[in-house]
Amino acid sequence: MFLRVRSSLAYLEILRPHNMLAAAFAVYAGFHAAAGRGFEGVAWLAALCALATGGGNVANDAFDADIDRVNKPRRPIPSGRLSVRAAFVWYAIVSVMVLVLALTQLPGPLAAIVCAWQAALFAYARWLKRWWPAGNLAVAAISASALYGGAVAAGWPEAAVLPMAIAFAFVGCRELVKGVEDIVGDRAAGARTLAVVAGREAAARVAAAAMLILALLLPVPAVMGIYRPAYAWTMLVAVVPALIAGAVIAARTKDTRAFTRTSRLLKLAMFAGLAAIVAGT
């Protein structure tokens, strides 16, 4: 009975619900930034982008089983709670569900966004992830595009340009940190990330510099009067300190566990950044 429960929970865990929530929140942030009101008008889009994100996570873990055996041994596949074959079947089920719901519940342009999102996530997991800079650029662009979807749902796509730029830069920074965190497994599996190609210290310096630059730039939209002061305060209290702390850690430590903690800190800061966009628009 216990083993069956663990196996069932693995199907949920491999979706990474926290990433799904971040995708849904990003869609809503883009919707709000484009002067959308309420939640009903964007609810289906947010839910399906979240579900597509979950499917992408399943595909990512299935293709990266060899890497995760080194870097993330507690994940469902390397821990033995889920087989690679079962993961691909689960991915197919989720993908078909997303496709059917998108085509039946969303207007054409929004359905196209969800389908493009789904295809991009698969391409990232299957081909792009192991190659720098393609992998980092792809995941940053995919993550940022959720804000575009929300803005399209609100009828003002142009409003997503600045939020997308912020999200792209932030996710790009976190991907650099993750590259250093995962260097051992990536190198063993033949992945060509920046940390593998240029070395741990060089990649850490690039990550530190990127985080410091972004920390300096984040308040600018409020200073220029583009966003309300609530945006700046939220960024200054919850996001900028995380970036500065991450930069200091990346510049000073060689401990892989410190990069793991930094990656988690930046993930929490990502939610705060989305909240800042909502508060400031």
What is the secondary structure topology, with strand pairs?
Elements: H1 2-13, H2 17-33, H3 40-63, H4 65-71, H5 84-105, H6 108-128, H7 134-154, H8 161-181, H9 183-188, H10 194-198, H11 200-217, H12 220-223, H13 229-252, H14 256-280
Helix pairs in contact: 2-3, 2-7, 2-14, 3-5, 3-6, 3-7, 5-6, 6-7, 7-8, 8-11, 8-14, 11-13, 13-14
Structure notes:
Helix 2 (17-33) runs antiparallel to helix 3, helix 3 (40-63) packs antiparallel against helix 7 (134-154) and helix 7 (134-154) runs antiparallel to helix 8 (161-181). This protein has 281 residues and is an all-alpha fold. It has 14 helices and no strands. Helix content is 81%, strand content 0%. The protein is globular and about 45 Å long.
Tell the overall outline.
globular
Q: Helical amount among residues, as a percent range?
A: over 70%
Number of helices: 14
| Beta strands, count | 0
How much is the radius of gyration in Å?
19 Å
Proportion of beta-strand residues: under 5%
Weakly predicted, low-confidence segments: none
SSE topology string: HHHHHHHHHHHHHH
Largest sheet: none
Overall structural class, as computed from helix and strand content, comes to mainly alpha
What's the overall average pLDDT, rounded?
Answer: 94
Distance between the termini: 50 Å
In short, what is this structure?
By secondary structure, the protein is mainly α.
Quickly list its features.
single chain, 281 residues, mainly alpha, 14 helices
